[in-house]
Design brief:
It is built from twelve helices and 13 strands. The chain binds adenosine-5'-triphosphate (ATP) and magnesium ion (MG).
């Protein structure tokens, strides 16, 4: 049975129409004129227990709004959301849901700014009524995967971004929630801390079978963690399915980039290889993109190496990043 159900959900924000200047500011206060922003338009999906799903989309697509509705910070304008059968935004059902979910917003901390991390964790233990034994087990686990020890006694406001993000992740999990919402949990992290976070998220999902919904603009994180992605475009779902399927839909594309000190006529190069190849210049390199079901790598490489002086060459397979870029540009799949 699904652990999360999002059924025909819509979220409309009302934004007062602003008038310029000081007088305009006062006029705005008493004006009844609003712009309506449809941040989320009639979306539906469900999540099975233990799944890790990537929730992606361009800036402003409505991802954070959906997450806020799923954890009860916002109420849908239409439709309903069920987390283990309860509505997170319903005043009488909220409590049931809060025990079951954990949330990390990469952009802002949920911790008490002036308290040392360890004290925040102890307060959360009390709030969620976690037994001493469970707290100890979970703390040991989180300390191991997130290496919290070095900064446990520092006030949260003194933590570096990477430490703060690890602290936030630990805090969101101390009550062992069944569902974890991660909204840009790796934003601004250096490669080492980011790797640690990704490994920790994998480990959490494997050990506790936590259902995870992850929002990020980093497609490497998505590829590392998720089989399934949901792509949101201006509030509507454009795709919900496996990463493999979307890669197949876009064809088995390879990109060959080469650098030549020789002057190259791109049109001639294209004619030699065939019309199904895309040719462009990027940072001085010539990039050829083609579907290997239509043109063989052998044929392309032979043409390049036989006919041109090649100073450098790379072959890349189609990344989720390049597919997503195309989807954001064309707004279709
Ligand atoms: N409280 C609010 N009042 C008015 N408009 C809002 C509010 N919150 C969000 N919006 C608008 O709703 C749309 C969706 O915003 P949302 O934060 O969900 O996007 P997002 O997909 O998370 O984007 P990003 O990748 O930049 O974080 C945007 O146009 C935003 O300006
Ligand atoms: Mg957001």
């Amino acid at each position: 049975m699904a652990i999360i159900e999002v059924k025909s959900v819509k979220k409309v924000f009302k934004k007062p129409v602003r008038k310029p200047g000081i007088i305009g500011m006062f006029k705005t206060l008493f004006s009844l004129k609003y712009d309506l922003i449809e941040a989320v338009k009639n979306i539906s999906f469900s999540l099975e227990p233990g799944e890790i799903v990537g929730y992606i989309g361009a800036n402003g697509a409505g991802k954070s709004t959906t997450i806020k509705m799923m954890c009860g910070i916002l109420t849908p304008t239409e439709g309903e959301i069920l987390v283990e059968g309860y509505h997170p935004y319903h005043p009488k059902q909220r409590r049931h849901v809060l025990n079951k979910i954990g949330v990390v917003f990469g952009q802002r901390t949920q911790l008490w700014w002036d308290l040392p991390l360890i004290e925040s964790l102890i307060i959360l233990k009390q709030i969620y009524d976690v037994s001493n034994q469970d707290y100890k087990d979970r703390f040991d686990f989180l300390n191991k995967v997130l290496d919290l020890e070095p900064f446990l006694s520092q006030p949260v406001r003194t933590l570096s971004l990477g430490q703060r993000m690890r602290a936030d992740l630990a805090a969101s999990l101390i009550h062992n929630p069944k569902v974890l919402f991660l909204d840009e949990p790796t934003i601004g992290l250096d490669v080492l801390v980011k790797d640690r976070m990704i490994k920790a998220i994998k480990e959490i999902n494997k050990t506790y079978e936590t259902t995870i919904i992850l929002t990020t603009h980093n497609m490497d994180d998505i590829t590392d963690l998720c089989h399934r992605i949901i792509i949101l475009d201006e509030g509507s779902i454009l795709y919900d399915g496996s990463i493999n399927l979307i890669k197949k839909k876009f064809g088995d594309i390879r990109h060959i980039r080469f650098f030549s000190s020789q002057e190259i006529d791109l049109q001639l190069l294209k004619t030699k290889i065939g019309h199904d190849v895309d040719v462009e210049i990027q940072n001085g390199y010539i990039e050829l993109s083609f579907d290997i079901e239509k043109i063989s790598i052998n044929q392309v490489l032979k043409t390049i190496l036989n006919d041109y002086v090649v100073d450098d060459i790379h072959i890349k397979e189609n990344s989720l990043e390049s597919i997503v870029k195309k989807i954001y540009e064309t707004r279709q799949i």
